[in-house]
Amino acid sequence: xxxxxxxxxxxxxxxxxxxxxxxxxxxxxxxxxxxxxxxxxxxxxxxxxxxxxxxxxxxxxxxxxxxxxxxxxxxxxxxxxxxxxxxxxxxxxxxxxxxxxxxxxxxxxxxxxxxxxxxxxxxxxxxxxxxxxxxxxxxxxxxxxxxxxxxxxxxxxxxxxxxxxxxxxxxxxxxxxxxxxxxxxxxxxxxxxxxxxxxxxxxxxxxxxxxxxxxxxxxxxxxxxxxxxxxxxxxxxxxxxxxxxxxxxxxxxxxxxxxxxxxxxxxxxxxxxx
Amino acid sequence: xxxxxxxxxxxxxxxxxxxxxxxxxxxxxxxxxxxxxxxxxxxxxxxxxxxxxxxxxxxxxxxxxxxxxxxxxxxxxxxxxxxxxxxxxxxxxxxxxxxxxxxxxxxxxxxxxxxxxxxxxxxxxxxxxxxxxxxxxxxxxxxxxxxxxxxxxxxxxxxxxxxxxxxxxxxxxxxxxxxxxxxxxxxxxxxxxxxxxxxxxxxxxxxxxxxxxxxxxxxxxxxxxxxxxxxxxxxxxxxxxxxxxxxxxxxxxxxxxxxxxxxxxxxxxx
Lengths: 274, 270
Fold this sequence. Notes:
The structure holds two protein chains of two kinds. By secondary structure, chain A is an alpha/beta fold.
């Protein structure tokens, strides 16, 4: 399936401070159904602003100055995200597009059990579900992300960083969204835990068929997990291509610079002059 | 030539509720000037406990640390002399500099405390050190840390560590908080300084790729034990221990990834 799920056209965001900062400049990109798109770039390149902006999650002084975002729902409807009112937008978020936030491990409420926090998602978005149904869904989700239903009563501090991150993924998965936006979801984890979580994201994607926008500065990681990669710099996408193409035949000088700034695990020596 | 010996060190923490945790289990290694050792392992493997013991923030439960054959004094002038010989560069350049002091102050402090140069030469020495880490003294000396970028701050932290003219440096994830495009620059700066000043560097990281390129030798730590050590390329390219292999398999390696994928596609077409 290669049809488009999200069409972003000529999208721009300005931080209206003095002097104004053009954080995202005329970005056009299509996210296809079921694909993983990597968004790479340095701090300040606008990758997070772009991802938040298309979902209208930005607060002043951020202002969307141009562009359109259209979500092609699986039901066949095209939803213009910028035309939705606040209530429609609230319902749309999480149901169709969910997020795993940067530093998500610390985004859980420390004084509520993880079961209660997952339960909340259903109470708000699926008000007609019975308590027993919700409970079954929560258990099911915790099993899917391999935390285990018995952990329902645990508080976040009783879980390791990797487990908390899985809980966040469970939460993002709860309503079976069509798109999941993941902002540096594994950056704080060590390599072994990171690898497990990436495997899991990839499996879930195959199982449930959602698309993923994966934001990180870690280009080697992105190359392995993404179908396509968009390289961002100073608010613009300077290159967008299949990840293999980015690796073997980068077109933009900046992409080449970025690739060069990662020493190769098994490649030639001499990257660090010794 | 300075030699630091970490000799059969075991560190046990008493944790309320969970009994005793063995953070280090009979760890031994030797760090000499002119030599770089990469210390790798996942979170909780004991890397930071080694750094804490080296900086005397913790004391070993068993075993000892010897500098040129002599145990490290517990306090007083002896401990200060030890700390002048071994300096630390921390992970977070946003937290390791004092926000209320100028850059000049940060570098002057060790110069004055360790009486590295006569008083009237302190200013010239601060300038020399900043130039050493490729910062423009006039541009940064009178600034506060928040006015500098992450990379500039980490350079200041390195200049501060070098101020006392140590023989050994412990760098705990010195580039992992920096932006990708400047990481290599800072790592190369460290490598240059290491070579030119003949420093012995213990490079602590979870990033196998930079560990390999930066270090002469690599030591792999798992659950407080050294499971493998040797020349960097041997450990990373031809790992023998199952845990080292696991770490290597988990580390992103696009080169290997696309090679394997290409092999799979041609295999499938047959």
